Amino acid sequence: METTEVKKERVVAGRGLIDFVFSWSLEDVLNSNFYKGKMREIPMTFSSVKEYKESFILPLLEETHADLLLSMESLPRAPSCEIISVKRITQDYKLPKDFFYTIVLKLSKVKKNDAEGTYEPQCGDVIAITDAKPKSAGDLDRSKMSYVIAIVLEVQDNLTRLSILSSKPIPLVEDKMKDIKSGTLFAINLINLTTNIRIWEELKTNVEDHNLNIIRQVLQTNFVDVENCSICQHHLKEKHSSAYSNIIARIRSSELNESQKSAVLRCIDTRECHHQNSVKLIWGPPGTGKTKTIGFLLHSLLKMNCRTLTCAPTNTAVLEVTERLLKTAKESMEYDTYSLADIVLFGNGERMKIKDHDELLDVFLDYRVDFLEACFFSSSGWEDSLISMISFLEHPERNKSEGTRDKSSRDKKAKKGNKGLNSVNVEILKEKEEKKKVEDMLSLKAEKKQPKHEEEKEKEQAEEDKKCDDFLTYEDFMKKRFGCIAERLSCYIVNLHTHLPTSFISQQTVEKMISALDSLNSCQKLLDEVVSRDEPGGCLKFSVARTECLEVLKSLPRKFPVPEFHDRWDIKKFCLENACLIFCTVSSSATLHAGRMSNALELVVIDEAAQLKECESAIPLQLPGVRHAILIGDEKQLPATVKSKISEEAAFGRSLFERLAMLGHKKHLLNVQHRMHPSISLFPNGEFYQYQISDGPNVKKQSYNRRFLHGTMYDSYSFINIAHGKEEFDNKHSLKNMVEVAVISEIVSSLHKNFIETKENVTIGIISPYKAQVYAIQENLKIYSDDDSSDFTVSVRSVDGFQGGEEDVIIMSTVRCNGNGSVGFLSNSQRANAGLTRARYCLWILGNAETLIRSGSIWNKLVLDAKKRRCFHNAEEDKNLAYAIAAALVDLNQLNILLNIDSILFRNARWKVCFADAFWRSMVRVKNNELCKQVFSMLEKLSNGWRQPHKGRKRIVHDKISSELLEHYKVNDQLYLVWTIDIIQENSSHIQVLKVLDILPLSKIAELAKQLKILFESYELDKIKHCKYKCSEGDLIVPMRWSVSNVSAKAYRVNYLLSESLAALSLSDD
Is residue 162 within 8 Å of residue 122, measured between CB atoms? Predict the structure, then answer.
């Protein structure tokens, strides 16, 4: 009887969700109401774990659908890449739905200002495979080849080779029945499904397969209070060791405030309860030291050897809390970096930008694996290096004869074994003196450059080395060989006591290792002296040092009790299983399920828990062994991002933290804020926290009253009204307001000038809820972002991007400016709270007061509060801002506002200023903000009575009347401001006014004068006299006024003609 081998089916994580995505037609994807009416709101309580998990399924599908729909709307700008090869994965390819392929991409560099961008693939990417780059979603169905949706399963060969699962066979491959190698296909990146797949897996996993102790505690309102557990209280005294008592005493004597100490102590007590499961909420409003409290708590758990996972929604938040923990931990470390191996941070290094965080590299998992791989896998690793050094020091006389003979083989071992050591050590430990020469010892670049003819090159190198060694003296040879081995050994010593968990390397061993380092350094120093100075007694000193060094080296273990490693994954698992504190994003914690760790976790700490969808927080809460969960957050700030309105209405974005708080779960409030000046904290404290937060002593000090610009507008807190703004959509359907952009640019420019004068450090944050506004501000402030000075920094981000951040000065741009009070998602109070609580010393809010008051939202209250507190200012109060607004309006061609410009620039001027249309047309055509500011500055001086002295002015020969009435003032090297005096009637008087005619090159002024001559000659003599009349007040010329009854009506019968005729004049080129 024949036996047939049953082929094992390839398992793809999240296959159920992927199949749903593959089942949607293009019409389904473009239907924004596809899931409308098919789901109910996620309830506040649940009858079972099954109901709990199932309630999130449809909202998750709808959110995935909405994400895909949004990607279709921006399809022309989607990252794309040419496909140069497609092959079936034969062993996995199987009908009806296992369409596995390997594709090869042709990656190209991104060009500057490239609207599309190049595609850099990641696992979990959903891509569209098509034979042409689509300009709209409809193009996907109009191409010759029907598009194929696929998901990326693996990424290899430097992002070029992908393993994918497609929704259906790829037509061009199947039709030709052969592999395609022509550039006729494209991969268009749509969305990434990784996080949603991880959520799906947790929701769909069998109830029996996961730890559901925490989930069961949050289904109903019968919350467990382990702080008042009678069993734990009864055993409290007998159970606690002196070490535990020391930790409690340290917490109580720390610099934490009382609410922070109480939070840490309650969490420690919770950990001690082993017979119940619980969830604890720590409520951390802005500036209350949430991260500091978490750092102190985690350090205490580290001292207690409590296996704890700490996670957060974003890489930024994870890095921040890890940095805080390390800062606290390193302050109490007795032996350099010993015990850092009990701390592990893992995740995607590129997305974390881990290389920008030198202080975290010692705990980053991928780097740690590189180190340990070099130590234990290398043929010239720890054991070989230790033996080599002992042998070298025991029999130095043999080394000269044997050294040349076996040098090449040892070097070959070193090259092959230390690839990871070289590539990582230099980056991670570059600041440490004992590792300064690592890059010289190990050359990965050299190894990469000789993949071919390696043996010949090594042979040639050995011959060269032999020639060199033949000419070395005994002392020189000793120095050279000792230095080579010592450097490698020193590197391993530091790496081992940094990256081996404390349960595998004792403190006594570390002490000996540090002693060995000192001995090696001493021997090296003495060898240098012997070789270079030939000092008397030098050899004797070296001999003594050599003996001492040998003694300590022989006391070091040649092997450590680590398990046998077969590959890098074994090392990763080893590091994760033996770490006390683990840090990662909430999504990445799913990998710990797959790892099947033998050492179970005890606690899960989730930072920024209120920013997480509840179904996502369920990922770490179901990890094996977890007994208690500590959620730290603030439901009054930004919630999780939800793209679907349907899912949002179903409460899909609600966090577990928020739901428990709404159900009355006890929250421990951190009630002292140490960030904001009291005038900044006042409004959010009252509006969002009912005045439960007090200001810390540090923010009440006089030193906290920092001022960076003059004027009450720039006090600690102010609302700056932008009355003439204009909201508009960009091409991505996001709003911007270029008048607010201009005002912000002017304020930052003033701050920079003040910094140059005072050398007073300042960090500036600019926040806007709209992406288009963020981008527009960034473009205008590039000059400061490129500034190398770290003492003056400008950061421009969205409200979401600034969550958790803080700066000395925050400028907030609200953007909205319309007549009906429409503010869209700006009305969200959580978003407002997040933006209003980022500043330390100054918060300046820019917006259109009329729009915000009419909105009836939180912004209505804010504007009215600012007026009540006398913190309300009109932007035009600052002349420079008035000029910036006018220049922006010119740039926007807002002539309807410009015609009433006197309300902005000349509200308190001595002279009334009128403008000819020709002037505005010239200004709009020029579109030069600096020129506009110069012109408006000159006009502001003119309107207050200043006049340019005749001396030094260029004369232009006009006819007599034009010469008497027409003025031209130099603005810059090319242009002149042309103006005259006119007479208008105002009530019962005729008054002099400034009439601004145009801004022209000198060569065109004479032509304008000729055209005006006709008008000027039509004036009666009385009017000409009045136009020429000058009334002086000191050095100023002020307008003259005459009663209408004293002036002949005939003298002004053509008065209206001047304005109307000037409106038609234009000498500029169209």
Answer: no
Rounded-to-integer distance, Cα 613 and Cα 271, Å: 25
Find the farthest-apart pair of alpha carbons in the chain and give their distance in angstroms, rounded: 129
Please give the CATH number for the structural domain made up of 211-299+310-330+342-362+590-669: 3.40.50.300
Neighbours of 566 (CB within 10 A): 9
Distance CA 526, CA 542 (A): 6
Q: Which CATH architecture has domain 912-1063?
A: 2-Layer Sandwich (3.30)
**Tokens 């990641």 appear where?**
122
- Determine the residue type at 435: K
Contact between residue 697 and residue 674 where contact means Cβ atoms under 8 Å apart = no
- Quote the distance between the C-alpha of residue 922 and its chain's center: 42
416-438 pLDDT tens trace: 444 444 444 544 444 333 333 33
Task: Give the residue from 773, 772, 750 showing the smallest Cα distance to 764.
Answer: 750
Burial track 694-711 (b if 16+ CB lie within 10 A, e otherwise)? bbbeebeeeebeeebbee
Q: Which residues pair with 99 in a beta bridge?
A: 166
What is 701-877's CATH number? 3.40.50.300
For 550, counting Cβ atoms within 10 Å of its Cβ (0-12 exposed, 13-18 middle, 19+ buried), the class is middle
Contact between 273 and 545 under an 8 Å Cβ cutoff? The reply is no
**Contact, 1013 vs 965, CB < 8 A?**
no
Residue among 390, 428, 388, 393 at smallest CA distance from 411? 388
- What is the per-residue pLDDT for 245? 85
pTM here is 0.84
Q: What CA–CA distances, in Å, run from 605 to 635, 839, 1027? A: 17, 27, 79
Residue 209 belongs to what H/E stretch? none
In this prediction, residue 452 has a pLDDT band, given cuts at 50, 70 and 90, of very low
As a whole number of angstroms, the distance between CA 668 and CA 673 comes to 15
Report pLDDT for 275: 83
The arithmetic mean of pLDDT across residues 11-35, rounded, is 95
| Domain locations in the chain as residue ranges | 15-204, 211-299+310-330+342-362+590-669, 369-554, 701-877, 912-1063
| CA gap 567, 553 in Å, rounded | 29
**Domains 211-299+310-330+342-362+590-669 and 701-877 belong to one CATH topology:** yes
**Cβ of 1054: how many Cβ atoms within 10 Å?**
14
CB 103 within 8 A of CB 86: yes
In single-letter form, the type of residue at position 838 comes to: R
Collapsing DSSP to helix, strand or coil, 634 comes out as coil
Kind plus residue range of the DSSP H or E element containing 155: strand 148-156
